Amino acid sequence: MTAAIELRSVRRAFGATVAVDDVSFAIEQGEFFSMLGPSGSGKTTCLRVIAGFEQPDSGAVFLEGLDVSGTPPYGRDVNTVFQDYALFPHMSVLDNVTYGLRVRRVPAAECRRRADEMLALVKLADMGARRPAQLSGGQKQRVALARALINQPKVLLLDEPLGALDLKLREEMQLELRLLQRRLGITFVYVTHDQGEALSMSDRVAVFNRGRIEQLDAPEALYARPRTAFAARFVGGANVIEGRYAVRGENIEIADPAAPAPAGTVRREGTIVDTQYQGAVRRWQVRTDDGELITATRPDRADTSQAREPGARVALRWAHTHMIELAAD
Ligand code: ADP
Ligand code: MG
After folding, report:
1. Judging by DSSP bridges, how do beta strands 324-325 and 245-247 pair with one another?
2. SS3 for 86?
3. Do strands 78-81 and 155-159 pair parallel, antiparallel, or not at all (unpaired)?
4. Could you tell me which residues are beta bridge partners of residue 66?
5. How far apart are CA 125 and CA 122, in angstroms?
6. Which of the listed residues 41, 45, 80 should we mutate to test ligand 1's pocket, taking the one with most ligand atoms within 8 A of CB?
7. Residue pLDDT, tens place only, 47-85
8. Residue whose CA is at the smallest distance from ligand 1 atom 1
9. What is the pLDDT of residue 303?
10. What's the pTM value of the predicted model, to 2 decimals?
11. What are the tens digits of pLDDT across the range 1-57?
């Protein structure tokens, strides 16, 4: 099947800053594809290259197999939802949603019919007459979504669309977006700096660092087999041991220094420097005698939380099989 989107060796620099540095990937039709990375890693620039708001300095962009590198944004069958919603404040919700259709001179009755359908889809059926200022953040985001979806794009580009929402609403919207995407079968390209969001929503995740893709994988593979120290730390905050191995905190046991280590385990002695209660789990930060800071994450049961305070001597141990060998960054 032809890829919905393909980037081939795309590079985009702003002066001395190389925002996107030789990036290549292909996104399948109907895929939920996330671009994950810290601020400044090139996600937005990459998205804008797909949308046509930015021109690559070199490389090419294909939509359904066609080279669109020279095609302006309005000539591409993609729509973008921005973090700040970019709604027209003086227009009603209904007029915001139908804007794209009215520009294309779609008859009023059809505009109305499709807008009602979209507003029902995003659960804003009774809100058509309101102004954006009369809506909550989550409602504004859904209007922005309806306004993009009404054009029936094959591809929807979303740039940190939930960034302005509080945690509970963000989690609700994550689920709604995912369900909507599945139902409509549209290809989503989703930009986020939130690794939990990327893991929970995506079919595949591209981890960006300094304008390059460090790893591109399904969420489970990304978590279980990070390829680089950066990917290991950025996704799920793994420990990086000796710069060459990753170990997840939940796979590290905290034991008495006098206890013998079972066969097949790696063992480090050290001193607890900090503990943080996090509800379901407690995080233990231990400075090992060879100078590494290692975080163990254990279920917060009395047996681990009572006896061990900062300053206590402990042994950390984990099974050899939990060590993930990393490639050089
Ligand atoms: P992200 O979305 O991952 O935060 P961006 O793609 O926005 O990253 O930015 C990548 C890099 O390119 C950053 O260093 C940013 O400052 C720079 N950059 C992005 N857009 C511009 C621009 N229009 N002019 C100058 N520098 C830019
Ligand atoms: Mg950005």
Report:
1. antiparallel
2. coil
3. parallel
4. 63
5. 8
6. 45
7. 999 999 999 999 999 999 999 999 999 899 999 998 777
8. 40
9. 56
10. 0.92
11. 799 999 999 999 999 999 999 999 999 999 999 999 999 999 999 999 999 999 999
Helix (H, G, I), strand (E, B) or coil at 144: helix
**Residue to substitute in 7, 11, 12, 17 for testing ligand 1 pocket (most ligand atoms within 8 angstroms of CB):** 17
39 lines ligand 1 (CB under 6 A): yes
Laid out side by side, the sheet with 265-277 consists of 253-255, 313-319, 265-277, 281-288, 293-299
- The answer to whether 177 and 201 are in contact (CB under 8 A) is yes
Give the 3-state secondary structure of residue 311: coil
Which secondary structure element, helix H or strand E, spans residue 12, and what is its range? strand 5-14
Side-chain half-sphere CA neighbours of 166 within 13 A: 2
Give the CA distances from residue 307 to residues 254, 271, 282, 302, 304, in Å, rounded to whole numbers and listed in that order.
11, 13, 13, 8, 7
Judge contact between 139 and 124, C-beta under 8 A. Answer: yes
* Nearest residue by C-alpha to atom 12 in ligand 1: 19
Distance of CA 287 to CAs 163, 271, 278, 310, 315, Å?
34, 5, 20, 10, 11
Most ligand 1 atoms within 8 A of CB, residue of 10, 12, 14, 190 to mutate: 14
Per-residue pLDDT tens for 89-122?
999 999 999 999 999 899 999 999 999 999 998 8
Residue 237's alpha-carbon distances to 170, 240, 247, 253, 295, in angstroms, are 21, 9, 9, 17, 9
Q: Structural domains in the chain? A: 5-224 (3.40.50.300), 238-325 (2.40.50.100)
Q: What is the pLDDT of residues 201-242, one digit of tens each?
A: 999 999 999 999 999 999 999 999 999 999 999 999 999 999
Question: How far is the C-alpha of 17 from the C-alpha of 173, rounded, in Å?
Answer: 34
Q: Which ligand is nearest to the CA of 206?
A: 1
Q: Whose CA is nearest to atom 23 of ligand 1?
A: 14
Element (H, E) at 96: helix 93-103
